[in-house]
Amino acid sequence: MLAACLPAAACLANAADTDPVATVEINAQRDPEWIGYRRAYKAAAFFAPFVRTRPLIQAHLQVRPLRPDLPLDGLRLSVAGARTRFEVAVDAMGRATLPMEKQAYEDDAVITLNRQKGNYYFSGRYSIRERDDGLYDASLLREACEQLLAAQRASGYRMRLLGKQCAGVTIVYAAGSTPEVALEAGGAAPRMLAAQAAHPFEDGSMGLYQVVTVRFADLPAGARVNAVTRPLALGTVYE
Question: Which of 201, 149, 132 is CA-nearest to residue 170?
């Protein structure tokens, strides 16, 4: 199950950076997790072409917990530099969209997370775009899965995904929730699809969520999935 890690985005935490680093004061008592804005900017710029021609998927900066029991609720990113200061929203899955700010890049501002260092880290995430109306034709879901798989392969996961094919999608909801997801096909009455406690993404680092798994082999021709309850994220299933 992938929804899906951006491999080269490890540069957010690990790659050597030859650019000068601005001096920023950090509260020693909090010692928050942080990364340089230029590094995050370069990673976002690297992945932008892979989603630009694949309109059904998206790429985010991802805040990941080091243990599944660490919460993602209330996360907030602050960007601060010599002439720059703003905040970046983080959604319920720990995903954030980094503004491409020239001033923050020139300052090499620091991105801090409102959590202590050593509990979370920064990476990247591909996922399928959610639709406001919650309606997903089977053909659209299959195409979205294919776009995501192609983007992963093009951006560095080719060997890991060798021989893998799209088998379905995952629709992710908060733990403990009771989502309404229906399968509509052939004019018959909608059939409700069951959610199960499962890891939303492939690495199991984010704890358990309510996940509805839709396999393409189980979808009749012309079927449509109606996510009455808006999901937190949509991922993919490869086999």
Answer: 201
Q: Phi, psi at residue 126, to the nearest 5°? A: -95, 145
Pair type for strands 166-173 and 120-128? unpaired
Contact 65, 120 (CB under 8 A): yes
Asked if residues 181 and 225 have their Cβ atoms less than 8 Å apart, the reply is yes
Partners of 215 in beta bridges? 168
Residue whose token pair is 């004061």:
25
Over residues 152-175, the pLDDT tens digits come to 999 988 888 889 999 999 999 999
Can you read off the two tokens belonging to residue 118?
């050593």
**If 0-12 CB within 10 Å is exposed, 13-18 middle and 19+ buried, where does residue 146 land?**
middle
For 210-233, the DSSP string reads EEEEEEGGGPPTT-EEEESSPPSE
The gap between the terminal CA atoms of the chain, to the nearest Å, is 9
| Per-residue model confidence as pLDDT tens digits over 106-161 | 999 999 999 999 999 999 999 999 999 999 999 999 999 999 999 999 998 888 88
Per-residue exposure over 81-108, b if at least 16 CB sit within 10 Å of its own CB, e if not: beebeeebebeebbbbebeebeebbebb
